[in-house]
Amino acid sequence: MTVSSSDDLGRMELRLDHLPRTEVVELLRSCTVARNLTKARQIHSALISSSIYREDVYLLNLAAEMFGKCGSIDAARGVIDRIKQPNDYTRNIEVAMLAANGELLLAERLLENSPSSSIVSWNAIIRGHILSGDLDRAKTLFDRMPELDIVAITTMILAYAQRGHLGLARDLFDGMAYRDIMAWTVILQAYCERGDLCNAGNIIEEMPELNLVAWTVMLCGYARLGDLSSARKIFDGMQSRNLVSWSAMITIYAHHGKLEEAKDLFDRMPEHNPGAWTAVLVANAKAGDMAQARQVFDTMPARDLAAWNAMITAYSEIGIEDQAVALFDRMPVRNVVSWTAAIAALARAGRPDSARDFFDRMPERDVVAWNGMIASYVRSGRMEEAQILFHEMADRSSSSWNTMIDGFVELGHLDQARFLFETMPQPDVVSCTSMIVGYSRQGNLNRARTIFDSSQDEDPVRWNAMIQGYAHNGHSREALELFGAMVVEGVRPDQATFVGVLAACNHVGVVANARNCLVSMIADHGLEDPRVEHFYSMLDVLARNGRLGEAEELIQTMPFEPDTVAWTSLLALEKSRAAKRAVVQRSREGGPFALILNSLEHS
C-alpha cells in the first residue's frame, strides 16, 4: 500500500515491504513530529514484521527516537534492545530520550558507561538539567565536557541569561573562540530583555554581520522599556524588512495602546499576514474599542488560531466572559491556548466553578491551563481547592509554586507560604519577592532581609519589595542605604523603586533628598514619565515639613489633574486656602469632593 495520510494507518493493516526506504523514513519522522503514540506502535509493529527492514539499524534508531518523542521510554528501550549492533547514533538517541523525559541519572550513567561519548549526548543531558531547573549540575557537566562546541556554550549562555545571571552569560560569551549568529543573538536578546540597551547597542556594533533578527530584537528591546520612538527609528532605518519586522512593530504599537500608529503601519504594509491583522485587533481592544476589534476579526480574510485566541482573550480581559465563551463555542479548531483563554475569562469574572467545568472538559492540559485553574481558585480565596489541584499536578512550573505562595501571602497565611517556599525546587525572584512582601507586612524585616540576601537575581522587583518594606515600616535609613547599594551594584531602578525611596524620604522628612530623588529619577535613570504616585509622595514630604506653599505649587503644576487624594493630603495637615478653594469649586461635582467640603465645614 502507499500511505497517503496518517488516517490510512487506522483504516488498514500497515505493511512496509513494498515501500521504498525513503517513504518508511518519512513515515517514522512524521509520526515523531505528531507524537502520536498509537500510530507509533502501529508503525513499529509493521517495521519489526517486515522481512526487509526489521534489522535496518537506521530505521530502528528512528523508531526508538519516535517512541522517545511520544514519551514512551519503555517502548524506545525495547526497540534499542533489538538492535544487534548499536552505533553512536543509537546511544545519542537513548541518552537524549532519557534526558528529555526527566531520567537524568539514567542518562548520565549511560553516558559514563558508553565506550565513546558524543558531544550530542553531553548537550542533551546538560539541556535536560537546565529544563529541570538544576543549573548548577548543568554547569558541572558543562565543565567536564571532553570538548566544548558552540551548541553547548550557547545553551549555557541562554540558560544564564534567562535566569538573570547576565554577568556569567557574558563571561562565557567573551571566552568563545568563534561565535555564530545564534550566540550573538542570544546575548543581544539577554541585554534587551534586561533593559540594558547600552550593552545591547555595543553588541550590535561588534556583530560581524547584522540580520533582520538582530534588528528586530533590538527594536523589541526599546519597546520593552517603553521607548517607542527609538524602536521606530530602528524600524525606519532597516535596509530591508520582512513580514516579521512589520508585524513586530505593529504589535509593539498595539501592546502600548498606540492604535493610530498601528493602523498607519498596517495600511502601509506591502502585504498583510495573520500576525499583522491580529496586532491591529489587539490594538483596538487595548484602546477600549471592542466593536472595532470585533469588526477587524470579522473582516479578516483568514483567521488563524492566534486571531481567535486574541479575540477571546480581549473579551476576557475586560470581563465580558459570555462573549468569550460564545466565541470559543464557534471555533472551528481549538488548542490548549483556546481552552486556557476561556478558563481565564471565567476566572476573571469570579466564576471558578464554571472555569473548573471547562478545565475538566479539556482534551489535554498543559501547565499553563493548570496554573490558570489554580489562579482562579486563589483569586476567589478558595485556597483549599487550589492546594488540592496543586498537589494533583504532575509537572509544576515556577508559576504554579508562585501562585500558591502569593495566594497564602495575600491572605496572611505566612506559615503555609513559608512551607511552600522552603520546599520549592528552585525559588525565583517572584517567590522571593512574595515572601519579602509577606514578612514586611508583618513587620518581620529581619526575616524579609534574610530572604532578600539569599537571592542574587538582578531583577529590580526584589529590591523594590525590600526598599518599600523598610520604608513602610519606618526604617527609612535602611531603605535609602539599600537604594544606594542597588545603584552601586548596577541594578536599574524602575518607577516602583522611586515610590519606595520617596516614601522613605517622607518618613525621615528630608525635603532636599526627596527633591533630588525626583530629579535623579529623570536625569540619571532615564525614567522620563513620573507617575502620579511619585508626585503624591513628594507632596506628602512637602506638606509634612510645613512647605505648604511649595506643595500647593506642585499640585498646580504637576502633569495630572489633582484629585481628592492630592487635596486631602494637604487638608489633613492644615486648612490650606488653595486646597479649600479647589475643593469648594469641585464640590459642585458631588461625590468625594462634596464629602470633603462637608467635613471641612464641620471641623
Furnish the topology, listing elements before pairings.
Layout: H1 7-11, H2 21-34, H3 37-49, H4 57-69, H5 73-82, H6 88-100, H7 104-113, H8 119-131, H9 135-144, H10 150-162, H11 166-174, H12 181-194, H13 197-206, H14 212-224, H15 228-237, H16 243-255, H17 259-268, H18 274-286, H19 290-299, H20 305-317, H21 321-330, H22 336-348, H23 352-361, H24 367-379, H25 383-392, H26 398-410, H27 414-423, H28 429-441, H29 445-454, H30 460-472, H31 476-488, H32 495-508, H33 511-523, H34 532-544, H35 548-557, H36 564-571, H37 577-587, H38 591-601
Helix pairs in contact: 2-3, 2-4, 3-4, 4-5, 4-6, 5-6, 6-7, 6-8, 7-8, 8-9, 8-10, 9-10, 10-11, 10-12, 11-12, 12-13, 12-14, 13-14, 14-15, 14-16, 15-16, 16-17, 16-18, 17-18, 18-19, 18-20, 19-20, 20-21, 20-22, 21-22, 22-23, 22-24, 23-24, 24-25, 24-26, 25-26, 26-27, 26-28, 27-28, 28-29, ...
